Amino acid sequence: MFALCGELDFDSAVQLQEAADSVLTGPDQPRLVVVDCTALAFCDSSGIGGLIKIYQQLSAHSGALRIAAVPGSVARVLALTGLDRVIPVHPTAETALNGGGAPSDAAAPGRALGERSAGR
């Protein structure tokens, strides 16, 4: 599971992709990755692109990506881009991990990405 916080923008999307690559290219690739957006305040096109790349990586190996606990402003971005119709969005990380009869072997460990300092 990846836990995002703050902003998912150009810089943090690179961090997310690097973290995902380290998990998805290893010998024990997970079949399910959950992105927990509970503490995510903002997502731009770079963030959307990062999520799409992870989705494509997982799909290429019969894996699944689920997004969880999306705040309103980020949910709007997902809806406007149509990403919420491609990647399942769940109300909580728990339902994302257990929902739909999909594999329960989610990526670990959890990671907090995208934190921004107040002085940005």
Automatic annotation (TrEMBL):
Please give the InterPro entries that the UniProt record associates with this protein.
Answer: Anti-sigma_ant, STAS_dom, STAS_dom_sf
Among SUPFAM superfamilies, the record links this protein to: SpoIIaa-like
Q: Which residues form the STAS domain?
A: 1-100
Question: One GO molecular-function annotation for this sequence?
Answer: anti-sigma factor antagonist activity
Superkingdom to which the source organism belongs: Bacteria
Q: Region Disordered: which residues? A: 93-120
The protein's matches in PROSITE patterns, at most eight in alphabetical order, are given as: STAS
Q: Where is the composition biased (Low complexity)?
A: 103-112
Family statement drawn from the similarity comment of this UniProt entry: Belongs to the anti-sigma-factor antagonist family.
Q: Which PANTHER family match?
A: ANTI-SIGMA FACTOR ANTAGONIST TM_1081-RELATED, ANTI-SIGMA FACTOR ANTAGONIST TM_1081-RELATED-RELATED
Name listed for the protein in its UniProt record: Anti-sigma factor antagonist
Q: Which organism is it from?
A: Streptomyces subrutilus
